[in-house]
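Sequence only, no structure available. Ideas?
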Amino acid sequence: MKQDSKSLPSAAETIISLNNIAGILCIIFGIFFLIAGFVTLIVFVGVFFLAFAFVNFFIKSKLSDINRLIKQKQYKKAKDDQLIWMIIGFILGGIIIGVILLIGYIKFDDLL
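Reply:
I predicted one. Tokens follow.
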């Protein structure tokens, strides 16, 4: 079978899919933290939830940038960016998001 020149390797497609799943979870967690932040803002705990919400939304936007780099076959730069947002995802985004991004990060080894 001939491979289309515009098609990506299966590992790249897997990474994009994992990043999309992590992006959806970022939106879900972001909305949850946003609501929790507004509800608990009265006792000043809400500020932390609001910060986590904005971090999740920011991670989501960065994952779109990483997926764009993968589609442009700039795998090294995409892997470097994935590492940064994976660490931030573990710390501030939620363990689930961090684990999904870690799996995607490991899949870069198949591409490089």
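The chain has one domain: 11-111.
Hope that gets you unstuck.
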